[in-house]
Structure formats: C-alpha cells, structure tokens
Amino acid sequence: MAVSVEAVLARLATWSADFTGGSAPATVKAVRSDWAQYLVWCEATGATPLPASVTQLETFLSAAIDKGRKRATVDRYLYTVGLVHVAAGLPSPSRDPDWPVKWKKLIRRLKSTGGHARKQAGELDMAGVEIILATLGDSPRDLRDAALLSMASDTLCRESELVAIRVEDIHHNRRRNTWSLHVPFSKTNQDGAAPDYRFVSLETMARVRAWQAAASISEGPLFRSTGGRPKVNQSASNALLPQEVARIFRRRAKAAGLENAGTISGHSTRIGSANDLAEYGATGTQIQQAGGWKTDRMVTYYTRRSQAGANAMTNLRTRSGATPDLGGDEST
User: Fold this and answer.
1) What's the whole-model pTM score?
2) Do 105 and 140 belong to one domain?
3) pLDDT of residue 2
C-alpha cells in the first residue's frame, strides 16, 4: 500500500525527536551531516530522496567514492540512508536482495582508489602515557592533563565518557582498597541499563586527587577548563568538551617527543590499553569488558598488531625451534 507524503513526514518528525533525545550528541550530529550530504546530491542530480532505489543508492555512494571519500565515510552514508528509510516506514534499498552484489562492486572501487583502508588513530599505550606523565609538572593544567591521561589509560573511556565523568562516579572499595569508575552512559549503553564499572589504579587516583585539590573540585564534572574564556555551549562548571580531549592528548604527545604524536586522537589511550591487555594475555572477552565494547569486532580490529605475535604461525615457529639469523653474511 502506498504511503502518503504527509504520513512519511509525520513519521520522520516523530522519529527525529525520539532519535535526538535518545542518542549521543555525536551520533545525532553525524547522522544529520550524512543525511545533508545525501540531500545535496539528490538536489544536484534531480533524484527524489525518499524512497531511493538500489540503483540510486549505488550511484550516490559511487559519487562519494569519486570525491575521494574513504571507507568509513561511505559506510556511514550507507547506514544513514537506510536508517532514515526505515524511520520513514519505507523499504531500505540496502536491504534489497540485489544490494549485496552492488555493495561488493563498490568495495572493489574503493580498493582501486585507495579508499578501502581504514585510518586508525595512533596508539597511546602505558609506555607512551608514562613518557608524557614524566614531562608534566605541578601547574593546574599539568595536574589536570596527568589525571585525564591516567584515567583514560586505566578505564579505556571514549572522549565523551571522559568529559562526562563526575566526582560522584568514582567509588572506593575500602575492604580491598581499590577504586572504580562508574560509567552510567556510553556509546554502547545509551540507556544506562547495563551496569558499567571500570578499574582505576591507585596511581591514577593520586593524580585525580592532586588535580581536585589544585582546582578546588569536590563535586560535579571532574575534568574542567583551567582558565581563559568559557567555550561556547559549556556549562557553568566549565567542563571540557569531547573534542578538547584529542587536542590535549596530541599536544602532550608532541611535547613529550612521541614519534606518532601527529596521529594521536581521543581514542588513542583506548587503543593503546587494548593492545597492552592483549600483550599481557587478556582474552578478547576480557578486553571487550574492560573497554565497554558491545562486541569483539572492534577489539579484534584494534589489537591486530598485538595478535600478530600470538597467532598460530607464532606457535608453529616457536615450537620448531627455528632461530633465523637476521644479520648479513659478511663472507659473501
């Protein structure tokens, strides 16, 4: 049965309000941006946004590849177009039986243009964090950044989760003298239904307490601006914004002379700690729980470097006892 334009618009209006209220701000921003790109393309080509055929979706994504868009961006465009179709009560072209073949063809195009590879943020493991910490002094900004880096390394929190930390979220187990961080909401736990607690070391707590004392923070948001004019849209508490975490990490990495400083992002401690855990023998499930991942897919992706030293070929070579000579033969 045909759906009227009025019915589609009404469904989308209701869905938009629900989606905005129930999703992380970053997710809402990304979906809106990607949908806007699709609408611009539709206007330029004379295509009708809804409903889109399989061929129309393929043509849109093909045009994005022609513009040099990378795999992650094309994936997002695909997700967003399908999401809005379903929200409007219309069949998504990405669920059509003909779509898998079209998608494989697009993936081959991405490979040929060099856009298939996903760009991963630089790693900031325990060793890197320790190098940075050694360069920090006792100014309020240094104390804050030391606490922020240390907390990020312990908890594997995302940028949005780090800036959302409140003093009240940190808990002390007096019997065991251990600390934990309660993450009430996260990207994979947006409704807060699943209890999520992360380990916090005594060293991290010492840095947190030093920062609290310097900034006179006894409640509310833990990580705040240390001075200057408040940022737009910041609350009266002057809490850091998610995008500021990446800038802090990158600036500190450059100042410490880390080789990969230019690739550091707000996710770098998350990736680094995941690899630290993998190299110390943690299972994929344990790493998944430590970082609050919903599945082990991203854990496998992030730890592929560490796992290269713990796969079946490693075991084979180790058991064979072969010790190759990696030096040159000076007699030849």
Assistant:
1) 0.64
2) no
3) 61
